[in-house]
Structure formats: C-alpha cells, structure tokens
C-alpha cells in the first residue's frame, strides 16, 4: 500500500446521486497580522465520505481545521453545517455540533492517566460531580481495544508512553464522542505501518456508520488508499476538488506545488562502499534497553545507513545514546577508530556529530527566537569573536544556508515559529550544517513535511553524503529509507534484528525483521 | 497475534511501578517528616502530649491556607495575597462580630459568612484579572496583596479589634483528646480538598488545565471558569483561615498575616506539588505543612538562638526538597 | 495661607501605637489651627527606605519643620542632617538617634521621647515584686536591631538583676501577636515552670495571654507588657495582664510638634533629651 | 530571483511589524511611565530638580537588584533571597570597612570586594543547588533567604554597623548635574546588562535556555553552567547593591532589605520580562523600576494617607501589566 503507483480508490464513492453536503464552506479567509493563511477556501463534505485535505506545508490546512473547531474565527466567508449557518466560538461549540478533531500538535495531559485523557472531554459522572472511575476505565479500555492498544494499562500516566502510543491515545479520545464529522490532522505522521493500517480500519467502520471524515496527510499513498475525494489547498486557496478515482498522484502534486516536481523521490544513487569507518558501536546500551548486548554496527563516511523498526523499538534511544543526550549504560563507541566516551552532547558536537531530533518543537528549535539565531545555535563560535556576536556574519551564514537548503522565509530576523512545518525542519538541518558535521544522526527527518519539501530534503541528504558525510537515518516510512539508504538495519526491542543490503531492499524483508521478536516470543 | 503486544512486558511492570510511585510521592515526604520527628524526639518535652497539641495548633492556619494554595498552584498559578487577604477578612469579620446589639451566636455566624465572602471577593478579583488578561498571577496577587493590606488598614484605621464573644474565644482553644478542634477542622478541609481533587470531575479538569491548558481548552472545557474557581476556592480557605486565626488569638488586626504566603507556598512545594502545575496533592501539602510546623517547634525546644533557628529553617527547607528528589530518582530506577 | 508646614514622619502606621499618635497629632493640628500637618508612615517597622524617602520629599517640599520617629537610629542621621542644612527645624522623638552618629555628622539635635529602658524596668519591677526573688521568667523581645526593642530588653534585664529573677529564655517575636503566641507556647513546653513573662509590647502580650489560656495555666503565669493599647484593657481588668507601660503616644507627637513650632517661631533651639512621660498601668488602674 | 521570494510580500511587512513590535515592547512600558509622570506633574514639586534627584536616588537600589533578577528570570528562575543576601553582604562589607587600623581607601576597596564575594557565594549556592538537583529556584532561594538573614543577624548579633569612612559616606550623596552618582553607576550596570544579553554569545544562550532548555542542551550548550552563571550574576549585583545601600544610608544592618525581592521582581515583570523565561530585556526592567519609584514618590507628594498609598500601589502594579497586554494586542493586530 505504500506504493502510490498501484494504489487505486479502495473505497467506492457513496452510492446514489448527489448527496446533501453535511458541511459546506465558501470563500473562507483568515489573516494573522500580515500573513494570509487562508485566502478563499471552498470545501464541501458529504456524510459518509472520507475527504482528503492535502497541500504543502503552510498551505493552510491546520488553519482551516482550527476555524472549523472554534479555536480561531474566520475573517470572511460562510460555513454551513447540516444546512444551517455555523459559527463556532469555542471548541465546546464545535463539539456540541458533532465535530471531533485530532489536532496536529499533541494535546495530551501528561501526568493524568490514559483513561482520563481519553475521556477528558466528558468524564463519566456519579452523584456530586464525582468521577465514575469504573465506567471511566471501562470506556477507556474499550476505546483502546478498538484501536488495538489492548495491552496499555489505562491507569498509566500518559507521560510514560512513547510518541506513537500518545498519538493513538489522541485518536481514541476523538473517537469517544459521537460525532457527525471527524477531522484528523496528520494522524499518521507519528504512526508506523501497522498502527496506520489499524486506523484505516477504524475510519472505514466510521464511514459505514455515516460519519464524514476529513483526513489530512502528506502521504499521498494513504490518500489514495482510503479517501473518496480530495481537496488541494495551495497558498491558502482551494485549487482543486476531485473524486479520488478521477485523479492521479501527479495531478495532485502538480496542483499542490503549482509546478511539475522533479522525480527526485525515485532517483537512485550509486552505492558508496569506499569510505573509512566514521563511527563504530560495540554493544552500546541505552538505559532503557533490556538487553545487555546493546547495539553494534559500523557507519562509513559517505554512507547513508537507515534504521527501521516498529514504534518503540528503541531507535530514538539509540541515537540519543550515541549523541550522549542520554548516557549509555555500557558498550563502546569509536570515532575514526579512536575510542570515545562523550559525557554530554557538547562533546559529541565537538567531535563532528549532529543530531536532528524527532520532535522539532520540543528539542530542535527555539521557537520564539529568530531564524538566524536558530541556525547558529550549535555553532555560535563561528559567528562570534571573544564571546561577542557578529550579527552581520550570523545573518550572512543564515542566508547562505537558507539558500543552500531552499528555505522559504521572509527575513532571518523573524521568529522561527512563523515558518511552516517543513521549513522549520529545514532550519533544524541548517543548524547542524552550519557546524560542518562529519556525521549526522537524523530521527524522522521528514515527519510532517510536505511532498515538495520532502523531495528537497532528500536531495539535500544525498548531496551531503556525496560530500562524504556519514548519515544515520531513523524513519518510520519504509519508502523513505528504501529511497535514501545504502543499507538498512532493522531494530526490534532495542536490538538489531537484521540487516538488509541495498540490493535486497523490500518492505516485506524489513518488516519480517521488525516483527521477528514478537513472533519468537509469541504473545497471544 | 494482535497489534497490541508491543509494550506488553514493560507496560505491565510499569503499572506496578506507577502505583508505587504515586504512593511513594507522598510517602517520601512522610519519611522526611518522620526523620525530623525522630531527630527532635531526643529533645525533652518534644513528644509530650501538650507539645503535640502546640504543634498541631501552630500548623493549623498555615495548613488551611496551603490547601487553597494547592488548588492555585495546581493550575499553574500562585497567590501572594493570602496573608494580606487573611488580614482583611479578619478585620471585616471582627467588625461584624463586635457590632453592638447582636446576639453572640448570630454575630459569630454573620462574621464567619462575611470573612468567607471577603475571601471570595479577593479570590474572584485575583482569578478574574489573571484569567481575563492572561497576566501572571504572581503580579496580580502582588497587587492585591497591597490592596488588601491597605484596605484592611483603612477599614480599621489601623486598630486591633478584640472583645469577641466568650464562647467564640473558648472554642479556639478547645481540644479533643489533646487534638485542637481547629486542627480537626483543618483536617476535614484537607479531606474535602483531597476528595474534590481526586474524585470529582471538577478536580480532574483542574489537574488537566495544570498539565496542558491549551489541551484542556481544546477539549471544550471552560478554562477561564476553572482558573477563577481555583483562586476563589483559595479565597474561601483564606476566609476560613481568618476565622480560625481569630478563634485562636482572639484578635483581628490589619497587620496580621505578613509573610503567610511564603509559608503556605513552602508547604505546598515541600509537599511535592509542582510549581508549574498539574502535579501534586493535598495530602502532600498536609505533610509539608507539618514539616514546617515541627521544624519551627523543635528548633525552639532545642534552645537554639533565634538566628541559628532561622538559618537551620532555611537549610531544612532546601534539604527536604533535595531528599524528595532522591526519593524520586530511587522510585524511577 | 502662610501657616507653617510640619512634616511628621512616623514608623509603621499598622501599629496601633502610631495610629493613636497620628490621631493625636491631627487633633492637635485642628486645635492649634496655626499650622499644616503632613504625615507619612511606613509599611513595616524596618522600612528605613520609606522614611528616608519621606524626609527627602519634605526637603523638596520645603516644609518648615520635620518631626521624626526614626526606624533606625543611625540610617536617618544623614538625611536629617540634609534637612537641617536646608534650614528646616527637625525634632527627633519616640526613638532617639544615635549620639555617636550625630556627633560624627556634626548634627546637634534634641530628643523628645520616653525612656524605654526605664519604662521596661518599671514593668519588670512590677513583675518581680509580684513573683518575688528566684521566680522563673522569660522575655519576648521586639524586632532585633530596633533601638527601642534593645532598650526595653535592657530594662527587663535590669529588673531581672535587681529582683534576682531567674531568666530562663529570651526570644524575639518581632512585635507580632501570632508569632508571640507560637514562641511562647513552645517556651512553655520547654520550660513548663515559667512563672512570669515580659513582653516588649502589648501586641505580643495578646498572643502570650492566649497561649497561657490554651495551656490551661491562666492565673499561674503573670504577664507584663508595654504600650497600654486598648486591646489589653480587658486583660488588665480580668487580671490576665499584670501591668503595662503607657508612654502617651497620643501626646508624644503633639508635644514634639509644639516644640518644633516654638523653634520655627524664633524660639531657642532645643537641646538634650526632653523626656516625655511614662506611666505604669496595672490591673488596679482599670475598673 | 531567489528562493526567498515566495513569501517576500507578506514577509516584508512582517519584518517591519517585527521590528516595530520589539521597539514597542519597551515603548509600551515607557508610555505607562510617561502617563504616570504626566499625572503626577500636576502635584507641586514633583518636577522640581531636587525631586527628580530624589526619585533617581530612590530607584537606584531596586534597579541594581532588578538587573540581576532579570538574568535569573530570563532563564526561567526566580530569586527570593536578594533582600536577605543584600543584608548579609552589607554586614560583611560593613564589618570589613570598620576594621580598625585600615586606611580608608583600602577599607572601602576590601569592603566592596567582600560584599561582591559574599553575593557571589550565595548566588553560587542558589544556582548550584537548583541546577544540580533540578529543584525550583523558588524554594531554594526561599531557603537561602532564611539562611542569609540568620547569618547576617548572627554575624552582627543584630546590631547596626556604621562609622564608615567620611569619603565613602559623602560619595553616596554626590550628584552630577542633579543626577545622583549612584544612579549613574546603576545606569552603567544597565548598559552592561543590556550589552551582555543582546550582544554576546553568553546572552544569546541564556535566552535560548529560557525558551527551550532541552533544545539548547542538545545544541551543545552547558545548561548547568548557564543556570549557575545567571544566579551568580544576580549575586554580584546584590553585592554591588549592598555597597550602594551603604553609601546611600551609611549603615549596614541585618534587618535591611526585607521585601526587596518583591520590588525587584515587580520591576522585572512590569518591565515586560516573562516569568516563564526566555523573553524580556534589561531596558524594560529599567523602565519597570522607574514606574515603581515614580509611583512611590508621587503618592507621597500627593499627600495621600499611607493606607490609600498602599492600595493605589497595588492597583497601579496590576494596571501597568494590563496596559502592557493591550499594547501587545495592538501591536499584534
Ligand atoms: N497563529 C498564527 N500566527 C501567525 N501565522 C500563523 C499562525 N498560524 C498559522 N500561521 C501561518 O499560516 C499559514 C498556514 O499555516 P497552517 O498551519 O494552516 O499550514 P498547514 O497547511 O497545516 O501546514 P503543515 O502541513 O506544515 O501542517 C502558514 O504560513 C503559517 O505560518
Ligand atoms: N518519555 C518516556 N517515558 C517512558 N517510556 C518511554 C518514553 N518515551 C519512550 N518510551 C518508551 O521507550 C521505548 C522506545 O521508544 P522510542 O520512541 O525510542 O522508539 P522509536 O523506535 O524511536 O519509536 P518512535 O517511532 O516512536 O520514535 C518504547 O517502549 C516507548 O514506549
Ligand atoms: O514604641 C513603639 C511601640 O512600643 C510599638 O509596639 C513598637 O514600636 C515602637 O516604636
Ligand atoms: Mg498543519
Ligand atoms: Mg523515535
């Protein structure tokens, strides 16, 4: 299903002739100060359809959704819901009107239990406003079972869950309410194939019940596999709406970016085998790893080494232990053949390592600070003398790197928070490139990044490896790893479960390794 | 095989750990309290029943204020005005209680009501201003701290109010098997606070707001209402605290309560509630208030100089929180 | 409209003692009718800054006379010197400025006020007389560092020596009712045999008496205080308070203002210590 | 044409908006200050040159402490100990300055050094404890508040130190075209603070940590070091503040500085620095300190009763922050 070429419209369009739309928008506009986020969007949603909303980063998808659920108010345009004017002023209004949303950003309560998170909107009550914990746990249990998280204890605090499980908890929460319309803003960005598939089953079931679903994703293959219709947003305008069956990937992409996209995604590269070993791990064990043997592998200059694995297989932890973001429990690390023991990220950075983290907002960027300040954050020594900042040099460096990575921005003095997701991700990359690293660790480098920017990032990464950098890429998107990597290691439960050479790349092989452990241990 | 097995093993073991952790959260502070008691028990008189009565009496007012402060801190706020507002509530109640011609019972009843109403008034003010304009409550309550103190002075023209009904004065020193009645009232308030925070929807939403305000708002909760409510609850407790103060000391004056806010905040934080909100409990606050009370009492009994006492108090406050950190690490490992 | 202006600088107006003083001064202004009063108080006993700022403001406003009860006997010397240099008549009352500091600054200034040490000794002696030699007593002190607190402690110590009392403990409760209650309760635990307490002011007496009541020792422990505030009148009547010292705060400021206006009108500058009245008030004085 | 062209049009206007916003951030508070000055200028004497000297003198100490407090609040901390530590530094310096047999110049020099060293000592203590154990600085500095106060009382046995060299005392009241020398020193400190925070790598990283600690750590910055440094800088300024206090008042005593922390925090927050860290400036702090100083002075000149004064102070603190919110909204639209 990852292959867009073969994907067709898997779900037939609703039978019968014209159905009354449940939701209808026309000419919706929204500005944030000087930024035009929406500039005339028209959109209609029919009951029982799954309607994809696609567009580049910053096209206005999330803004549109925020208007629909009452977080922000539109400046112009009309919206009708079930034929009546609809003008929500609070998220509560939207919920009363039967609209449920899974937002792009996490909206969880980390110290509360999974059950409380799931039922947070409407906790079951007893007399005197007391929480009916029994019902609460039952409901949460059912909700989790329904999305396939049967083994997560509902009393456990959400803070103890990994990123994917958190996303699933959010989805479970949105499914709690009886809704007419379910909006999912990039729900699959943090999920791996298996959870995604499960989600699609749920969507199909809802659809059968007549619920209308709005589905936002940067993965067009997903759009083709579950959606009935698609609307493309570009620069805040709706530029096309079509039945899925009547459109193609190329057509969508062309409409999204407003031009033909080079076939960057598919380009293969020459296998590089000549480089010296840049990094060598022997039995490196993250504190969260249950296995004393840890992880061992070599990474060569000029090589792109992919790391695949299921959610929670310990890939993020592996990168963190290399970078000394978390200190490894045991094992050794060699850099250019020399043994190293970094005691903090600073030493790893000095040693030529960069780390693009998986969560750019929490760990990668300083959102309130200027683009330039973010770009130079890890290389302030380069733009300063005797501790004094050279702002001109800083701006120059930021502009230069911005050009190299094709960053779309207004001014390097603007806060990085004003950029779209994909461009924010590029700033994170620029931050490390500014330091001329020899090794780059990348954790989900294209999460939430649109197709256009993704292609650009791929090209960029290839370019880096051709310049001799050693790249270690963790990704949950197998096509991404397959496109980029020279070699793929598959992790399972904090161990290397297998290695796949480029000539043997196939999703099936990789998944086989990924699931190996579970098969052997055979739960259920 | 199902998609759910991914974290089976860790999840199972983690659950137990989680429960233990929750229990230990309070237990850790309890251990610090017990350690302190053991140290002081070598001091003569410390464990005598009359001294236990003393300690409990001395803990009472701080405890009552700390319960309210817990609500405010849980939603990520802070209330610096509690000491001044206590004073304002007391002089209002004192004025009512000494109105000529009132039947004592009626006077006490009306005074109690008016103290609570005054507390609610300032609680509302704090909550409304900080929630409406999204201003840090630190600065809002620094403002109302001054307003309440000035108002208390203005109302009384700086004089002390006394001569309350005899029954009311007697009530303040009453004990029940050596436990001061006022402390029992405070314990009931702890129980109510615990119940509200852990068992009611209202309480869970409060925690939720402290965890992630935006998420709570997106879930359709009226964050504004809850914030105002937390400050108002704090105001109610300040009002009750004022009546307890009057019952204990038989005066009401515009200069009482100076610095009470820091004591209350210290009790809450030592009790393990996070200053950034979302985590903590009233039971922890109870233990925190007891640590402060035991410390003050024990150091006087030890016969240390006032200056040494102040220094040691500082050390122990820090030490209690450091110990709590080690306990936290232990339970994590 | 050409009435002379008098600036009155007091300590914490939150203290009833100064509030009474202010009322006395206002009544005096109305009665004399030949001067304008501008009064400033502070928010706490230790708020030296506000006092200094107030004096500086009075210099700016070119008042004719400043009457000041200093919160710190040394810190106020430089600003007062500036006021004098600016040609303003200054009278120091209630708490005396430090002699050595005055001398160093080249400042000659009279003090109009009570003898705190003597007053405290009067109260202490009353206690000693009631309890007899060898009685076990404690002192509850005022703010550490405050001159009148120090004087009163010295006065109590004089009584302890003269009356051969057994001093068990001496601690500050910062002039505060609640703190006095706590401190004394705890003292009572450590020394269950306390027979007498000397409190450096009556606000603290209120807390001490309540602690005695709570411990069920009413009548077994004698208390003396200082200030004779209204709130202790019932205690005197019920004999829960043996004695206190009236320093006629209400008249003190009025007195000092009279003296200052005399100088402004061309009288001779004041010198030395113009002692004001103090009087021991006992249960017998209250009916 | 370049890759940057896509958003040029809105971006251009954004840039201007951004710059305007930055300027307005301080300008807004400046406007509040000017409004206050205009209101008071109807009071006789308010604008007289001697009163201006008064105001500047009165602002000085709070300003110096507020500069240090700005550093601490920028990294998301708070320092409640500044008032007590100022007192401790002053008595240490006072003791040194009055050591018998020292040449006055040497005495003053050594005293200044020792005040700053004492300040650094407590700053280090605050920073090390809160950074090492990840304890909220609120509670750590509440502890050191008590420790420093107790230590100051112990060192002096509660007595006031005076008799400083005449030249030192004179220096404290010196003015320069009506501007107090001490205030000029404070202005220099503001300028240094502004320079460090806006022009150096150190300052940049401090802001970064205040905004997003984890991102700063992963970019290779030693968060521990910076946190300790911020508290230490605050300590240095407290030490300098102590010397300024002594020069102005010619005493050092263990009971000075009570409540200074709240004034300093108020100046920082009114000056637009965010209590949660990462946003703000020393220039804003300067304006915030002036607002507080002008208010205190003007209300005395107005001849209002002290009680009214306290109430109005409370109102204005809140009002200033509310006004700032409206300015913020205006600049956003
Ligand atoms: N609160 C805001 N203030 C200013 N600009 C904003 C705000 N929210 C969104 N924008 C801007 O509006 C535009 C649309 O953003 P939006 O988040 O809707 O894009 P999106 O299509 O969801 O992108 P992505 O795929 O990256 O999630 C962007 O230029 C964004 O920077
Ligand atoms: N903050 C946390 N607290 C406790 N456990 C966590 C936390 N974050 C992750 N985990 C757990 O650690 C394990 C590894 O998670 P990690 O996120 O490293 O996996 P990953 O392979 O990188 O997957 P992902 O695609 O989610 O990043 C999982 O069992 C996860 O539940
Ligand atoms: O003389 C007064 C009073 O006795 C008061 O109680 C404390 O402050 C002193 O200055
Ligand atoms: Mg989006
Ligand atoms: Mg990961």
Automatic annotation (TrEMBL), chain A:
Entry's localization field = Cell membrane
* Record's keyword annotation contains Cell membrane: yes
| UniProt keyword terms in alphabetical order | ATP-binding, Cell membrane, Membrane, Nucleotide-binding, Repeat, Sugar transport, Translocase, Transport
Which residues are in the ABC transporter domain? 23-260, 276-518
Give the matching SMART domains: AAA
Membrane topology per record:
Peripheral membrane protein
* Source species, domain of life: Bacteria
What are this entry's molecular-function GO terms?
ATP binding; ATP hydrolysis activity
* A Pfam family this chain is assigned to: ABC_tran
Entry-linked Gene3D superfamilies: P-loop containing nucleotide triphosphate hydrolases (3.40.50.300)
Q: What GO cellular component term, any one, is given? A: plasma membrane
Q: Does the keyword Manganese apply?
A: no
The record's family statement is: Belongs to the ABC transporter superfamily.
Protein name per the record: Ribose transport system ATP-binding protein
Query: Organism, per UniProt?
Result: Phyllobacterium myrsinacearum
Automatic annotation (TrEMBL), chains B, D:
By its UniProt entry, which Pfam families does this protein fall under? BPD_transp_2
Q: Which residues cross the membrane?
A: 23-43, 55-75, 82-99, 105-125, 132-155, 175-197, 224-245, 251-270, 282-301, 307-323
The listed locations are: Cell membrane
Can you supply one Gene Ontology CC term for this chain's record?
plasma membrane
The molecular function GO annotations come to:
transmembrane transporter activity
Keywords linked to the UniProt accession:
Cell membrane, Membrane, Transmembrane, Transmembrane helix
UniProt membrane topology term:
Multi-pass membrane protein
Q: Which domain of life is it from?
A: Bacteria
Q: Output this protein's name.
A: Ribose transport system permease protein
């Amino acid at each position: 299903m990852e292959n867009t070429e073969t994907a067709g419209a898997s779900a037939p369009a609703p039978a019968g002739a014209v159905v009354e739309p449940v939701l209808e928008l026309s000419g919706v506009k929204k500005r944030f100060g000087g930024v035009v986020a929406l500039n005339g969007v028209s959109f209609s949603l029919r009951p029982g359809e799954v309607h994809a909303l696609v567009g580049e980063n910053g096209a206005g998808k999330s803004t549109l959704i925020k208007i629909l659920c009452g977080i922000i108010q539109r400046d112009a345009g009309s919206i009708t819901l079930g034929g009546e004017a609809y003008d929500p002023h609070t998220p509560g209004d939207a919920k009363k009107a039967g609209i449920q949303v899974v937002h792009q950003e996490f909206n969880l309560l980390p110290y509360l239990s999974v059950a409380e998170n799931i039922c947070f909107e409407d906790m079951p009550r007893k007399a005197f406003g007391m929480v009916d914990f029994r019902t609460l746990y039952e409901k949460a249990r059912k909700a989790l079972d329904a999305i396939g998280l049967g083994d997560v204890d509902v009393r456990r605090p959400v803070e103890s869950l990994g990123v994917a499980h958190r996303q699933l908890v959010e989805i479970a929460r949105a499914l709690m309410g009886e809704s007419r319309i379910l909006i999912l803003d990039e729900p699959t960005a943090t999920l791996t194939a298996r959870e995604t598939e499960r989600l699609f089953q749920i969507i199909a079931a809802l659809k059968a019940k007549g619920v209308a679903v709005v589905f936002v994703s940067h993965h067009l293959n997903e759009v083709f596999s579950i959606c009935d219709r698609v609307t493309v947003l570009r620069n805040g305008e709706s530029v096309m709406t079509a039945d899925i069956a009547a459109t193609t990937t190329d057509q969508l992409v062309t409409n999204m970016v407003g031009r033909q996209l080079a076939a960057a995604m598919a380009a293969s590269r020459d296998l590089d085998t000549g480089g010296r070993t840049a990094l060598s791990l022997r039995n490196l064990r993250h504190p969260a790893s249950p296995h004393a043997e840890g992880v061992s592998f070599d990474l060569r200059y000029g090589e792109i080494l992919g790391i695949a694995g299921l959610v929670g297989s310990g890939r993020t932890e592996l990168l963190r232990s290399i970078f000394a973001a978390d200190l490894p429990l045991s094992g050794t690390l060699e850099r250019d053949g020399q043994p190293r023991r970094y005691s903090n990220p600073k030493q790893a950075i000095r040693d030529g390592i960069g780390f693009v983290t998986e969560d750019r907002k929490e760990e990668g960027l300083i959102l309130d600070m200027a683009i330039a300040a973010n770009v130079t954050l890890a290389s302030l020594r380069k733009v300063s003398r005797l501790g004094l900042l050279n702002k001109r040099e800083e701006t120059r460096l930021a502009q230069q790197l911005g050009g190299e990575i094709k960053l779309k921005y207004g001014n390097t003095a603007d806060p990085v928070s004003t950029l779209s997701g994909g461009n924010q991700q590029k700033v994170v990359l620029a931050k490390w490139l500014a330091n001329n690293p020899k090794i780059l660790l990348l954790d989900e480098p294209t999460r939430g990044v649109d197709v256009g920017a993704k292609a650009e990032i791929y090209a960029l990464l290839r370019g880096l490896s051709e310049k001799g950098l050693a790249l270690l890429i963790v990704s949950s998107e197998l096509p991404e790893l397959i496109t980029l990597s020279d070699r793929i290691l598959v992790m399972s439960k904090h161990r290397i479960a297998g290695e796949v050479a480029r000539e043997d790349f196939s999703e099936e092989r990789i998944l086989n390794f990924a699931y190996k452990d579970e098969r052997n241990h055979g739960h259920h | 095989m199902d998609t759910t097995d991914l974290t089976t093993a860790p999840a199972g073991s983690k659950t137990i750990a989680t429960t233990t952790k929750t229990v230990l959260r309070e237990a850790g502070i309890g251990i610090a309290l017990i350690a302190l008691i053991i140290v002081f028990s070598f001091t003569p008189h410390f464990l005598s029943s009359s001294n236990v009565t003393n300690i409990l009496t001395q803990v009472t007012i701080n405890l009552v204020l700390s319960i309210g402060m817990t609500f405010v801190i849980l939603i990520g706020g802070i209330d610096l005005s509690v000491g001044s507002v206590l004073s304002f509530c007391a002089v209002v109640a004192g004025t009512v209680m000494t109105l000529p011609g009132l039947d004592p019972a009626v006077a006490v009843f009306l005074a109690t009501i008016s103290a609570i109403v005054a507390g609610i008034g300032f609680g509302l003010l704090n909550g409304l201003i900080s929630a409406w304009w999204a201003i840090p409550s630190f600065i809002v309550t620094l403002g109302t701290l001054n307003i309440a103190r000035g108002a208390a002075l203005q109302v009384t023209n700086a004089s002390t109010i006394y001569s309350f009904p005899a029954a009311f004065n007697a009530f303040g020193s009453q004990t029940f098997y050596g436990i001061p009645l006022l402390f029992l009232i405070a314990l009931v308030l702890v129980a109510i606070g615990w119940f509200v925070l852990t068992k009611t929807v209202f309480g869970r939403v409060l925690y939720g707001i402290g965890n992630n305000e935006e998420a709570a708002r997106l879930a359709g909760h009226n964050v504004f209402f809850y914030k105002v409510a937390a400050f108002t609850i704090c105001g109610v407790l300040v009002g009750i605290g004022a009546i307890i103060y009057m019952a204990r000391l038989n005066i009401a004056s515009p200069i009482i309560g100076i610095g009470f806010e820091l004591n209350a905040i210290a009790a809450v934080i030592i009790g393990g509630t996070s200053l950034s909100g979302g985590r903590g409990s009233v039971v922890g606050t109870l233990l925190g208030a007891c640590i402060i009370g035991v410390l003050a009492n024990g150091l006087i009994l030890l016969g240390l100089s006032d200056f040494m006492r102040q220094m040691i108090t500082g050390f122990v406050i820090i030490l209690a929180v450091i110990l709590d950190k080690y306990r936290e690490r232990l339970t994590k490992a | 409209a050409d009435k002379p202006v008098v600036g009155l600088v007091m300590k914490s107006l939150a203290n009833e003692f100064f509030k009474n003083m202010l009322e006395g001064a206002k009544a005096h202004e109305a009665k004399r009718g030949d001067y304008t009063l501008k009064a400033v108080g502070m928010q706490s006993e230790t708020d030296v800054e506000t006092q200094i700022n107030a004096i500086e403001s009075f210099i700016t406003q070119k008042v004719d006379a400043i009457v000041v009860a200093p919160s710190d006997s040394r810190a106020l010397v430089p600003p007062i010197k500036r006021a004098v240099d600016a040609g303003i008549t200054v009278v120091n009352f209630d708490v005396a400025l430090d002699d050595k500091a005055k001398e160093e600054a080249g400042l000659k200034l009279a003090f109009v006020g009570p003898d705190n040490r003597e007053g405290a000794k009067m109260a202490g002696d009353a206690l000693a007389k009631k309890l007899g030699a060898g009685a076990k007593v404690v002192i509850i002190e005022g703010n550490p560092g405050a001159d009148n607190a120090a004087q009163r402690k010295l006065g109590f110590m004089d009584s302890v020596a003269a009356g051969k009392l057994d001093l068990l403990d001496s601690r500050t409760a910062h002039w505060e009712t609640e703190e006095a209650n706590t401190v004394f309760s705890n003292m009572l635990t450590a020394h269950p045999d306390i027979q007498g307490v000397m409190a450096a002011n009556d606000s603290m007496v209120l807390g001490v008496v309540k602690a005695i009541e709570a411990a069920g020792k009413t009548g077994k422990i004698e208390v003396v205080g200082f200030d004779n505030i209204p709130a202790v009148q019932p205690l005197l009547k019920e004999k829960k308070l043996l004695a206190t010292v009236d320093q006629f705060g209400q008249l003190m400021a009025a007195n000092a203002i009279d003296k200052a206006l005399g100088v402004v009108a061309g009288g001779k500058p004041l010198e030395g210590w113009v002692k004001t009245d103090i009087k021991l008030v006992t249960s017998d004085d209250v009916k």
